[in-house]
C-alpha cells in the first residue's frame, strides 16, 4: 500500500550527493542552538506556476532572498499529499508531495538549493493525526468494525441505548465534539472515531506498534532526502490517557495550555521522542552537524515543555508563553527569566517566537489591547503596532537561544482583518465555537513587488488563494529594499549584526541592568565584546543609564533617542555594494554616540556595543 502511494525521486537524493554535503560541512554540529529559523508557509510564500497557490518551485526560486535576509534555516509547513481540509495538516501520504505544491523532485531540488546557499531545511511532521483520505483510515472505514486497521486509530462504540452518543466528552480544538460517528459498510450507523482537530483529521492510536514503525520510517524517508530536521506538529498530543476518561465539564478549550488534559502532555510521549532522537543522531552529518526536531508542545507550564528537551529527547520547543506575552516590560522579563531557567535546567536552548500561521500577526496584536489575546480580528492602531513590532524584534534577536521568524514579519505585515467570509478557508471558522477561525488573516500571500495584487507572489493575472489588500504595494520586498527606514532593512541589519556579534544568540543567560519602570535593559558579554539591549516599552521617552563606552549599533525607530544618530542607515550602507545583504557583511559600530544616559523614545529598542 505504501509503495502504491509514495512518490519516487528520479535521481539520487540530496543527502547522497557529495556536493550538497560539502556545502554544509563547514557548519557547527550544534548549529541549531542559536539558529534563526524562518517559517515558510508554502501556500503563501511564492507561486511558481501562476495558479494562485504558493508551491515548492516558488520557494526554491526565492531562497536567495532568505539567504540575503540572513537566516540560518527554513521550516516549511506541510506540503504533503493532502485534501487540504486543514491547509495540509491533514496528511494523506507522508511520503508524497501534493500536486498543488509540486513533486518529490521539487522537494529534493529545494533541499539541494538551500544547502548550496548554506541554509538548513526543516520539514513539518504531523504524527498526531492524518487525513481521513489516508490509506489506513479509508481501509479501516471500508472494512468495518473488527478490522485490524481500526486499531491504528481510536474507534469506539457510542454511548446511549443505540450508541447515539459520543464515547466520551472530549471537545475538538476546532469546536464541537472530538468524535464523529461512522456509517457501517451496510449503511447502518456505526462506531465513532476520535479527532482532536477537524473530523477529516482522525487521531492515530500511538499504543499500536504499526504507528510507531510507520513514523520511524517516515522520519528516515525525509532524513534520507537530506532534510536537517522536523517540526513536530501537536507533539504533546500523541498519547492519550488510558481508557480515554471523561473530563467532566464543557468549555474545555479555555483550559488548553494551562490545565492537565487527558489527551495532551501525557508522560508516555517522551518514550516516543527518545526513539526518534536515536534516529536523528544516526543521521548527524560528517562534520557532526546534527539533525534536529522542534516540538509544537502546548503544555501547562514552561517546565513541562522543558521535559521534551531532555538530552535524549527533542532539541527545541516553541516558546508559546513568550509568543502570548503582551507588550509589557515586567511580563516579558518574567517569561524571559522563566524560559532561560527551565531550558537551562535540561541543557536546551531557549527559543523565541512572535508569530506563526496560527496566530494574529504581532504587528497587529501589539496595536490592540492585550485582552484580545493571540486571535484577533481588530485592525487596531497600525502605527503603534508596527513601532512595537520593530522594537520587539530587536529584543527577541538579542536573547540567547534560537529565534523563529514567520514569513512576512520582516515586512512588518499586519494581519488582514477584513477578509470577507466567502474567501475564508480555516476549518475552525466553519465550526461554531471553534478555537478561533481567524487564522486566514496571517496566511495572506506575501507581497514581493509591483503596484497591484498579486504583487509578484506569482505571475500577474490570476488572483491569489486569499486576496491581498490594496495597501500592500508599499510593503513589498521591492518597495522596502534599500530604504533604511523600512522594516525589511531593519531585519536585514539586525540579522547581520547578530551574525557578526556571536554574543547575541550564544550563551544561556542575560544580565539585567537597572532601568526605570517599563524599560528593559540587559547586557550580554562574550570574549572580545559586550552588548547591551535597551527597550522602552512605555509610551513616553525615558532616560536610561548605560555602561561607560556604549555606542549605538542599531535602533528600531528613526526618532529613537535624543542625540543619537540613526544607526540603521550606517549598518545598511556598510554592506558591500551589490553583494548579498546581511550575510555576514560588515556592519560597523556607529561611533557617533557615546551615550551614557540617552533618552530613548517610546516603544523603541536600541542595541549598543560596549
Ligand atoms: C498545529 C498546526 C495547526 C493545525 C493543527 C492541527 O497546531 O500548527 O495549523 O491546524 O496543528 O494539525
TrEMBL record:
Q: Which Pfam families does this one have?
A: Alpha-amylase
Q: Which domain of life is it from?
A: Bacteria
Species classification: Bacteria, Bacillati, Actinomycetota, Actinomycetes, Kitasatosporales
Q: Which Gene3D superfamilies match?
A: Glycosidases (3.20.20.80), Golgi alpha-mannosidase II (2.60.40.1180), Oligo-1,6-glucosidase, Domain 2 (3.90.400.10)
Gene Ontology molecular-function annotations: alpha-amylase activity
Query: Domain Glycosyl hydrolase family 13 catalytic, which positions?
Result: 39-439
The species this protein belongs to is Actinacidiphila alni
Which example biological process does GO assign this protein?
oligosaccharide catabolic process
Sorted alphabetically, which CDD domains does this protein's record hold?
AmyAc_OligoGlu_TS (cd11332)
Region (Disordered), start-end ranges: 1-21, 571-590
Similarity comment: Belongs to the glycosyl hydrolase 13 family.
Which InterPro entries does this one have?
GH, GH13_cat_dom, Glyco_hydro_b, O16G_dom_2
Query: Signal peptide: which range, if any?
Result: none
Name of the molecule in the record: Alpha-glucosidase
| Sequence ranges of Polar residues compositional bias | 7-17
Amino acid at each position: 500500500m505504501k509503495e502504491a502511494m509514495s512518490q519516487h525521486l528520479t535521481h539520487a537524493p540530496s543527502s547522497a550527493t557529495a556536493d550538497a554535503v560539502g556545502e554544509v560541512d563547514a557548519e557547527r554540529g550544534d548549529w541549531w542552538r542559536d539558529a534563526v529559523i524562518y517559517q515558510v508557509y508554502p501556500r503563501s510564500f511564492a507561486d511558481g506556476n501562476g495558479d494562485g497557490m504558493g508551491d515548492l518551485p516558488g520557494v526554491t526560486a526565492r531562497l536567495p532572498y532568505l539567504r540575503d535576509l540572513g537566516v540560518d534555516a527554513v521550516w516549511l509547513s506541510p506540503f504533503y499529499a493532502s485534501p487540504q481540509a486543514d491547509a495540509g495538516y491533514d496528511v494523506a501520504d507522508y511520503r508524497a508531495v501534493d500536486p498543488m505544491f509540486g513533486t518529490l523532485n521539487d522537494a529534493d531540488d529545494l533541499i539541494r538549493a538551500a544547502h548550496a546557499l548554506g541554509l538548513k531545511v526543516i520539514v513539518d511532521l504531523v504524527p498526531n493525526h492524518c487525513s481521513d483520505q489516508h490509506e489506513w483510515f479509508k481501509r479501516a472505514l471500508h472494512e468495518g468494525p473488527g478490522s485490524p486497521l481500526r486499531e491504528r486509530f481510536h474507534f469506539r462504540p457510542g454511548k446511549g441505548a443505540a450508541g447515539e452518543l459520543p464515547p466520551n466528552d472530549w471537545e475538538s480544538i476546532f469546536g464541537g465534539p472530538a468524535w464523529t460517528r461512522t456509517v457501517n459498510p451496510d449503511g447502518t450507523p456505526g462506531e465513532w472515531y476520535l479527532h482532536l482537530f477537524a473530523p477529516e483529521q482522525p487521531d492515530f492510536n500511538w499504543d499500536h506498534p504499526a504507528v510507531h514503525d510507520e513514523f520511524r520510517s517516515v522520519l528516515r524517508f525525509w532524513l534520507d532526502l537530506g532534510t536537517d530536521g522536523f517540526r513536530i506538529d501537536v507533539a504533546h498530543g500523541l498519547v492519550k490517557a488510558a481508557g480515554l476518561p471523561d473530563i467532566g465539564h464543557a468549555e474545555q478549550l479555555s483550559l488548553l495550555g494551562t490545565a492537565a488534559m487527558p489527551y495532551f502532555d501525557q508522560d508516555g510521549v517522551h518514550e516516543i521522542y527518545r526513539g526518534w532522537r536515536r534516529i536523528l543522531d544516526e543521521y548527524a552529518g560528517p562534520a557532526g552537524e546534527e539533525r534536529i526536531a522542534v516540538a509544537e508542545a502546548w503544555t501547562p507550564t514552561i517546565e513541562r515543555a522543558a521535559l521534551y528537551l531532555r538530552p535524549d529527547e527533542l532539541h527545541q520547543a516553541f516558546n508559546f508563553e513568550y509568543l502570548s506575552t503582551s507588550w509589557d516590560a515586567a511580563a516579558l522579563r518574567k517569561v524571559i527569566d522563566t524560559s532561560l531557567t527551565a531550558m537551562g535546567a535540561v541543557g536546551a536552548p531557549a527559543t523565541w517566537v512572535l508569530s506563526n500561521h496560527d496566530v494574529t500577526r504581532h504587528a497587529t496584536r501589539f496595536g490592540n489591547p492585550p485582552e484580545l489575546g493571540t486571535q484577533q480580528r481588530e485592525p487596531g492602531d497600525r502605527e503603534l503596532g508596527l513601532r512595537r513590532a520593530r522594537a520587539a524584534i530587536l529584543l527577541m534577536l538579542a536573547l540567547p537561544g534560537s529565534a523563529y521568524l514567520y514569513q512576512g514579519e520582516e515586512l512588518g505585515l499586519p494581519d488582514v482583518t477584513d477578509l470577507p467570509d466567502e474567501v475564508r478557508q480555516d476549518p475552525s471558522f466553519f465550526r461554531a465555537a471553534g478555537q478561533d477561525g481567524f487564522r486566514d488573516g496571517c496566511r495572506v500571500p506575501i507581497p514581493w513587488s509591483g503596484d497591484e495584487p498579486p504583487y509578484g507572489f506569482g505571475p500577474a493575472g490570476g488572483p491569489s488563494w486569499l486576496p491581498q489588500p490594496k495597501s500592500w504595494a508599499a510593503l513589498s520586498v521591492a518597495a522596502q529594499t534599500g530604504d533604511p527606514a523600512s522594516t525589511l532593512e531593519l531585519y536585514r541589519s539586525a540579522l547581520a549584526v547578530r551574525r557578526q556579534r556571536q554574543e547575541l544568540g550564544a550563551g544561556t543567560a542575560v544580565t539585567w541592568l537597572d532601568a526605570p519602570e517599563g524599560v528593559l535593559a540587559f547586557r550580554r558579554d562574550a570574549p572580545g565584546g559586550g552588548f547591551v539591549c535597551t527597550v522602552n516599552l512605555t509610551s513616553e521617552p525615558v532616560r536610561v543609564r548605560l555602561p561607560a563606552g556604549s555606542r549605538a549599533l542599531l535602533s528600531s525607530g528613526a526618532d529613537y533617542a535624543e542625540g543619537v544618530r540613526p544607526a540603521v542607515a550606517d549598518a545598511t550602507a556598510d554592506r558591500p555594494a551589490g553583494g548579498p545583504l546581511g550575510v555576514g557583511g560588515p556592519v560597523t559600530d556607529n561611533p557617533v554616540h557615546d551615550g551614557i544616559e540617552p533618552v530613548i523614545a517610546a516603544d523603541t529598542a536600541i542595541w549598543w556595543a560596549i
